[in-house]
Every structure is written in C-alpha cells, then in structure tokens.
Amino acid sequence: MTDLVIRSIVPGEERLFASLPDPAVVGRARFGQDYLTMAATGDYRPEWTWVALREDVVVARAAWWGGPQDREPRMLDWFDFSDADAAAELLRAAPLRTEYELRLPPGWRQDPVARAAGEARIAAAEAAGYSVLVERFRYRWTPACGVPERPGRLVFRPAPDEESVLAAFRLIHQDSLDAHVRRTVAAEGLEAAAQEELDYLKWLPSGPETWLLAYTPAGELAGITVPGHTPTDPVVGYVGVVPEQRGRGYAFDLLVEATQVHAAAGVDRIVAATDQTNTPMAATFARAGYPVQMERVDLV
User: In degrees, to the nearest 5, what angle opens at C-alpha 197 toward C-alphas 196 and 198?
Assistant: First the structure.
C-alpha cells in the first residue's frame, strides 16, 4: 500500500482539505456549515487543519477550531475520512490536543445512516486514544419559540467583580451534574474547576456585564446566569444554582432571565447546551421552550 502522508495544509491549500467528499450526514456539514467559508473567516487556520494523503488524495482530514483571539485551538470539530485507519493515525500524529466535539442530528441512533457515520468517527477517535466523556443536547431558541415569562422570584444584579463569580462557582460546582466539571474537580480540585469556568466567561466577547448573579428576596445568593455571546452566536453561557437553593426550580428562573435579556436585545437565536445525563437541566430547557437542534458527543 502507498505510504500515508500526514501533514497540516499551507495557506492556499484549503480546497485540498475540501476535496474529500462529504455526504453531510453528521458533523458541521450536517448543519449547513462549510469548511471553505469558515476557513476564509479565520475559524479554521492552515496550521490547525490536517490531512492524511495517499498518492496526493485526501483519505482523512481533521480541522481544529478556535476563536479570533485564540493562540491555540479550542476543539476538534471537523473530522471525517474514507480510511478509518488513516484517520486514527492522523489524530495520533497531529500535535494538537483538544476535545473532539462530534455534532449529530437529534435521535441520530434511530437513523441507520447517521448512526453508522457517528459510530465510525467515534471508533476512529477511540483508536487514536480518545474516549467518550459525555453526550450533550444543543438547543437553538428563536423568537418563534416564544419568550417565557419571568417567575419574579429572584433579583438579578451584574457581578461586581471576578471574585464574586469565582465564589459562586466554588459553591455551584459542589456535587455538579456536569461531566466536564466533575472531570476537572476529580483531576485538579474544586478551585481549578471554578477558575476554568471563569476563564471561559472571560473568553466570551460579550464581557463581564453579562454575568448576572441571582439573589432571593432575602438577599441570599441563588445562582448565576450569563446571557452572553460567543464569536458566532448569542448564548446561554452559563446557568447554575448554589447547593443551598437547589430543589426550588431556580434553574428555570435563571434560564428565563437569560432568554429575556437576549430577547429584549432583539436576537434572532439563542444557542445553549447541557449534558444529556443532567436530566433536571434538560427538563428546564424543555419547559422554557428550547428545542433540541442537535446532539453532541464530547471525546477527550
């Protein structure tokens, strides 16, 4: 068999990456996104875009995504192939180490074609040393979904400083149902998990004015909600309730507040996500009228 050549592309070779046929069954292409368009706007960079070639034909490819200010990619989210062994070898050879986010249509396991495509990518990533961390729901609210009414039980104030947000995360991350949080707490401790969450909020271009702390009428901290923006979308950047206030349904109040803030600003969409195993939060999104746009498998 002809030797496999694995390398990053160079500027001007974006069409080489795009030359692998893509039936758009899973991944970004399934949701109407195009590699060439995203590369032209800087979402994918040549040094973060890798191909495996046999006789100059692409048999596997992987592209890592990052925001405009990122010096390192944040995630692998474009990965497909005609040769599974070459795909696994590509992931082993590329020097980039991030999570792999595989985007899938809702109910993908009930669609034989989508299931085969998704499971093939998962298997190739696992052969390269990745493992599944969690499966997630990704939501996309639009004005047609309706704006849920504020319950009026909580008082919302902008966070006065970063330390107040860190203090909230230290509480919220105790007994968290979020798989990423639990992984960080287990590996590095509660303080590292809180800092990791704050670093994400600081990465959002929407700024700290969107970090809203929620209080009960008695002045007790109830949680935090973040109606923020990523480089591409308005988002519910975070919803979390402190342990002492759990069991009262306050996650709904926090989600509604974020929705109301965005709706008042006239956004045409709000993107959000939660772990499928976090059934209380998934139920909260459903109650607030957020439809599932896609499912996602996160591999680490």
Answer: 90
> Exposed, middle or buried by CB within 10 Å (0-12, 13-18, 19+), for 251?
buried
| Neighbour-count burial for 77-107, b at 16+ CB within 10 Å, e otherwise | bbbbbebeebbbbbbeebebebebbbbbbee
Rounded to an integer, the average pLDDT of 273-298 is 98
**Confidence check: pLDDT of 1 > 70:** no
Overall size of the chain counted in residues: 300
Query: Rounded to 5, what percent of the chain is helix, strand, coil?
Result: 35, 30, 35
Q: Do 60 and 81 contact (CB within 8 A), yes or no?
A: yes
In sequence order, which residues have a C-beta less than 8 Å from that of residue 84 and are 6 or more positions away?
A: 120, 123, 124, 127
Contact between 294 and 283 under an 8 Å Cβ cutoff? The reply is no
Dump pLDDT digits (tens) for 114-151: 999 999 999 999 999 999 999 999 999 999 999 999 99
Identify which of 272, 267, 270 has the alpha carbon closest to the alpha carbon of residue 282. 272
* H helix or E strand, kind and range, residue 140: strand 132-141
Q: DSSP for 35-101, please give it.
A: HHHHHHTTSEEEEEEEEEEETTEEEEEEEEE--TT-SS--EEEEEEES-HHHHHHHHHHS----EEE
- Residue 98: which of 127, 112, 78, 121 has the closest Cα? 78
- Three-point CA angle 134, 128, 51, nearest 5°: 110
Give the Å distances, CA to CA, from 191 to 82, 89, 165, 188, 203: 43, 36, 12, 8, 18
Cα–Cα distance for residue pair 187/179, rounded to 1 Å: 12
Identify the band that residue 217 occupies on the pLDDT scale cut at 50, 70 and 90.
very high
Residue type, 31: F
DSSP at 197: H
Q: Is the dihedral of CA 191, 196, 201, 205 positive or negative?
A: positive
- Per the structure block, which two tokens stand in for 97? 């180490």
Dist CA 46 CA 66 (whole Å): 12
